[in-house]
Backbone:
């Protein structure tokens, strides 16, 4: 079960974004208020994560009121600015930017289809791409290494499979994943150990932090049970 999110101003380090105790307490309070028999506490939490989102400044609105929409601006000839948006709309932003630039330059190009073009064929992502994480298996790791450009252990554990956030024994699973990746990517003898050390350094047990995106102003947080 995933619970969230909070939406709070953030002024801390962009390299160390975490779900703060106040955010966790707020989410638990709301859940237990509406579902009193649940009696969920911090001891039930498997993982937490937080990220930062870019907002277009508005002097007359709070961060919670500012639109999450993106803007593409052309302040002068040959200069384009893209601001705002979300990770889930990055391909739409790219498509709109290409179409606007092509129109201004009078290039005879077909309409950009980036937002609808699959990165991989549907049959290649069956069972390994979805809202919930895929089964923890060697074949899944093989797919990410061969078809989804996974180069580091945290690429698989955090950004491809999300196993880091869904398994209480994620650190132990990571050790096995590192062994599989060493086989698939032909890592040098010492790289397996270095990758595991890197993963555990970036994502130590019980912290479950997630690297942020730069130059952002609010922090939505979520909890996994």
Residues:
């Amino acid at each position: 079960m995933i619970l969230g999110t909070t939406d709070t101003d953030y002024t801390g380090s962009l390299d160390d974004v975490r779900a703060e105790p106040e955010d966790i307490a707020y989410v638990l309070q709301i859940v237990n208020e509406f579902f009193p028999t649940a009696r969920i506490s911090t001891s039930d939490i498997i993982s937490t994560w937080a990220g930062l989102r870019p907002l277009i400044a508005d002097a007359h609105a709070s961060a919670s009121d500012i639109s999450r929409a993106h803007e593409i601006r052309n302040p002068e000839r040959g200069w384009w600015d893209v601001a705002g948006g979300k990770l889930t709309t990055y391909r739409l932003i790219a498509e709109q930017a290409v179409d606007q630039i092509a129109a201004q330059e009078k290039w005879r190009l077909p309409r950009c289809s980036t937002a609808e073009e699959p990165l991989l064929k549907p049959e290649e992502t069956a069972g390994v791409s979805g809202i919930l994480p895929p089964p923890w298996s060697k074949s899944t790791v093989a797919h990410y290494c061969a078809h989804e450009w996974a180069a580091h252990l945290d690429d698989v554990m955090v950004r491809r499979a999300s196993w880091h956030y869904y398994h209480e024994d994620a650190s132990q699973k990571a050790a096995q994943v590192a062994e599989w990746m060493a086989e698939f990517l032909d890592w040098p003898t010492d790289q397996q150990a270095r990758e595991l050390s890197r993963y555990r350094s970036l994502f130590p047990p019980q912290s479950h932090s997630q690297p942020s995106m730069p130059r952002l102003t609010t922090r939505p947080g979520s909890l996994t049970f």
The two ends are 5 Å apart (CA to CA). The chain has three domains: 2-50+212-224, 52-117, 122-202.
